[in-house]
Fold this sequence. Notes:
Elements: H1 3-57, H2 63-69, H3 71-84, E1 89-97, E2 103-108, E3 120-121, H4 127-134, E4 138-141, E5 149-159, E6 162-172, H5 173-181, H6 184-219, H7 229-238, E7 244-251, H8 254-261, H9 263-281, E8 287-292, E9 295-301, H10 307-320, E10 322-325, E11 328-331, E12 334-340, H11 348-364, E13 370-374, H12 375-383, H13 386-394, E14 398-407, E15 412-423, E16 431-432, H14 434-441, H15 445-464, E17 470-475, H16 476-480, H17 482-494, E18 502-507, H18 515-525, E19 531-537, H19 544-549, E20 554-557, H20 559-563, H21 569-585, E21 589-592, H22 598-607, E22 611-612
Parallel strand pairs: 12-13, 15-17, 17-18, 18-19, 19-20, 20-21, 21-22
Antiparallel strand pairs: 1-2, 1-6, 2-3, 4-5, 5-6, 7-9, 7-12, 8-9, 10-11, 14-15, 14-22, 15-16
Helix pairs in contact: 1-6, 8-9, 9-10, 15-17
Amino acid sequence: MKQQYLNRFIFFVMALLVVFAVYLQYMITESTNRLKNEEVKKSEQYAQKIANYLQSKIPTDDIEAALVKNPKLRQELNVVLQTFLTKQYRYIFLLKKDTQGHYRFLLDGSKEDPEAFNAIFFPKSDLFEKVCKSHKMQIVKQHEGVKKIWLSLVYPVVKDNHTEALLVLDLSESYGKYLNTVNSPLMHVVEMMQIFLFGSLFLLAFIVYRYNKFRKSILVDRLTGAYTKLYLEEFFNRHKVDRYDAVLLDIDEFKQINTKYGYRSGDHILKEFVETICDVVSPLKAKVIRTSGAEFFIVLPKDKIEIETVSRKLFETLKEKRYLIGNEVASLSVSMSAIEIPDETASIQNIVRLLDEKLLEIKSKGKNSLGILGLRHLNEIQYGNMDYIKEALEEERLLCLYQPIFHTEKKEIVKYEALVRLIDKDDPEKLISPYHFMKVIKGTSQYIKMSKLVLKEVFHTLQIYPDIELSVNLDLDDLYNNDMMTLIRENLYDHREIANRLTFEILEEKEIYDYDKVSLIFQQLKAHGSKIAIDDFGSGYANYSYLIQLDIDILKIDGSLIRELGTEPVRTKIVLASIQEIATTFNYELVAEFVSSKEIYEAMRELGIEYSQGFYLGEPKPIEEYRH
Length: 628
């Protein structure tokens, strides 16, 4: 796992643990509160039973009068109240409100120093008055009542909708503390856990802070604020090289600046020099890397601006820039090389090497100049030369790579697409894409020669591996070319026992005007069991007319549609779903190309597209690498 994701994961786990600890504390508190509430409900029921008992023992509606006339009964009931006292109750007594609004003791169940009959009681809460009026029990909290009392239950003794007396049950403070301490061991554990987790989280944050500070110190140049060479390596470990363009620039003879003006002034110039670079390229989200003393490497996203445009603007800006050193004004001579990084470039080191070679060439020719190195153009010059291609075909420096086509749901290889490559003359490990040579040889005898070599290898591969299916590309020009069709028909006849494992993928660069002729050619291709696939369906000329007028077997969805999942996923899925529905209706096999990520692959599964092909599932490789 990458460091940045590991840090986030650790923080996430720690945060979850903290939340869990807080949740535990909350649940323990809630459990204690529920326990207290249950005890209060029991006390309510207890008070009701006592009140009912007292009413049954006092044979008159006037409780006070009955107790005044019968001291013996009063004494007996005080004793009874004493028996009702348990460890959780400190006092139980009965009050009566007189005509002057004073509360007086009628009964007191206290074992020690009971209050005298008719003694005045001074309540410290207005809830007593509320009970008298509402005829509903109230709970008087500790701070509102007598010391050493947790809470008091004031229960009305009601007769004919009139409060005759108030029965008071005082729950002891010690019992309240006992209830609080029931879950205290667990609460202490949770509190210690919270202290540990918060401490760990703080320590982790501190470590991450120190790590990022250290990381910044090694990834960012202290003098100029540009990135270091280490950052360049790390950056392209996280990003694809071919999504960027690059510039390499060097201040010519910067040592002379240091010698003439001193290192302090030289440092000041370097800082201002980098600031000038950033003014030009920072709006383009470029990265400026200091690779050595006065040499800088710049990477720019391809989708921002053409590399040639930004390079020339940067070169002119740096050339016109003036630096004030003391009372002198100085200018710098800068040599620059720039490159449009080609597709499928995997190593930034190769790009740096090419730019460095170009920079050395510029310096050897007088310095203070800009060289645009378009690797595509260089390759086209070399690989697009007819003599070079002819020599490669004569020497049979041709190779077929095979990209697997997967069953989307099962994620199993069901077929391979053959893709032709030429082998570089000077570097046998380097393979040349058809992009560089196909247009040059199209319509020539060299094209027929190449096709013959491709078909030869394809049928040879089918013979070696009797359990595989292959597909090979043809375009409309191939179908209209008599020599090409003769070559294909002869190969199909000579290998008719295995022709049913071959699919012809029809590429279209021109619109079909004679569907009858094309339909007849398709019949010839399918005569021995081969299949027909329409490539790049959904773009260009590959439209729904093909489905109506031609007998085909397979649709391959154009990669540009698949790529749109990254920008317009909702609409793209609707379009893809419609194509999938058509394929199901016409009983076509449906293949999604350019499945370049897990997200796209999962989208294909969701849409029910039967087959998938792309770099996420498998790159073009020699067939042996897939057949181990």
